[in-house]
Amino acid sequence: MEVAILAHEQFPDRAKTAVGVLRYGDQDVVAVLDRETAGTTVGDHLPDLEAADVPIVEGVADAPAFDALLIGIAPIGGGFEESWRPDVRGAIERGADVVSGLHYFLNDDAEFAELADEHGVALRDVRDPPADLTVASGTARELDCEIVLTVGTDCSTGKMTTTLELLGAAREAGLDAGFVPTGQTGIMIDGGGIAIDRTISDFAAGATERMLEERADEREYLFVEGQGSIVHPAYSAVTCGIVHGAQPDHLVLCHEAGRDRIHGYESFPIPEPSAIAELCLDLADHVAPTALLGGALNTSGLAPGEAEDAIEAYGSRLGAPAVDPIRNGTDRLIEQL
Amino acid sequence: MEVAILAHEQFPDRAKTAVGVLRYGDQDVVAVLDRETAGTTVGDHLPDLEAADVPIVEGVADAPAFDALLIGIAPIGGGFEESWRPDVRGAIERGADVVSGLHYFLNDDAEFAELADEHGVALRDVRDPPADLTVASGTARELDCEIVLTVGTDCSTGKMTTTLELLGAAREAGLDAGFVPTGQTGIMIDGGGIAIDRTISDFAAGATERMLEERADEREYLFVEGQGSIVHPAYSAVTCGIVHGAQPDHLVLCHEAGRDRIHGYESFPIPEPSAIAELCLDLADHVAPTALLGGALNTSGLAPGEAEDAIEAYGSRLGAPAVDPIRNGTDRLIEQL
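^ Those are the sequences you sent over. The predicted structure of the assembly is below.
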């Protein structure tokens, strides 16, 4: 499938979904829409990507033909920016579907809904959960499959990246491994999944469990993307529902080197990672026994020498193997399985 | 306000909402509807209630005049039982509002909606959360008010009862205390509140925080009704959102004497209560420092002598004062504040 990705004024640093799809998606990306960096290519900003040649263009009119427009950014709160309207309209008029992970649903927008209908295209709000979710039955551990879940010291510490790197490394090692996406970017990459942060809280564990049940049969291992952090003042409910719904055999704790405050909640210090790991293990253990597979440290802000020191220090603090999934890959963690 | 309470075939033991409203509500209950125990009075089943004289009747046609019909029971899953339809219809036709805490919304039922419109009465689905909820700001601790939250070793261990007994004892002790209801029964008793189990999981902490903000200004103490249990395989997300949204100064751990398995999830043993208390404190402490005020033990299944022993043993296990709120009252806990 050929896609264009909207990332106005935020590519690449604040365009987590766009970069995630470029790095891990099966889609053939034909253009990134960013009026600020138009005229450059993806490789000018992210030289290590296979998709380095993809052009960055001003708007949908300048993009080559595509099957779907992906909304690749999200303002805080998940609202729709009115300045994106001409591009969404343009995509629909060109006969393309539009895929969005915003809290604001495109299907609830009268103009888009009518236009999509007229042009026979689909608006896919990937954050909209299925209507038939229910409570967990507590049976994930009975699945014939080992479950690995990423947890974090905060939001945006690399849980999705780590999960997908683990998946790739497991497959390269010959393991029969599957991915369980729980957030909008993971869902766009995978093509399926449920955004747990948008489910009714009573059904958060149940929605997680349901995804595992749907995917476990064919797999020896499932790698579940975690959300938020168990010590986050706003989002911990989502984390907790995933931990107990997934009943993981193994946890990987993701942290960003140098970050010591909860992002956007700066009055809250991030506790010592080993204390967070202990809390996650204790929380999980009371429902199903769990072990810490290792740590994943995002060292993208550090120079190579510093990075290696930081990764080693992180591992000693956790008492477990640690890697930067992007710098080192995740083989050291996969070997523990 | 005069109310009738529907509790067909489940009064009193499986009619938690009906009994809660009878025990703690300000409403003047004129009748309980239960076709199985019709002809008896509330006092025949629950002699300690002030509302002992309330008649139990076959259906709405046999009840004295009332302003509202309350649905006082909930089947597992929160669905609507079709056998209740004639009573709900009858109430509307008599010009009464209908108040329901079911997951099934009366307002979504075409027949009821039309009939209510015709008769100018309101259908109040108390489990339907406000449409404008948002994420927590993490500021509950900054409120000029001490927060006491009940947590439990399982569902239905007496969290609402304990919270309301604490509220009553605090007020009798001359403290300026308020109630924060987080579930359907608490909301029916209070007349306000948000059912946290029905909010979007991203907003569970935010919805809790919002209730505290609305109520804190006028109060020295707020008593927050907890939900579920942090070790529950299905509902822990709800618990976690309330713990971090409320940022309580004090926790009270509620347990039912003799219960050793999660209700409805019998393959899960209930962990040692002191371990659950530690987990709750650890979880809460990482966001805002918290202390264990004491324990509340439901000993309704025990003889008086056994009950006193069980309460003392529970207190020693927790290393904190313990009471059965119904047998002993909660003064011993309120004295700690």
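Chain A has a mean pLDDT of 96. The two ends of chain A are 34 Å apart (CA to CA).

Shout if you want it in another format.
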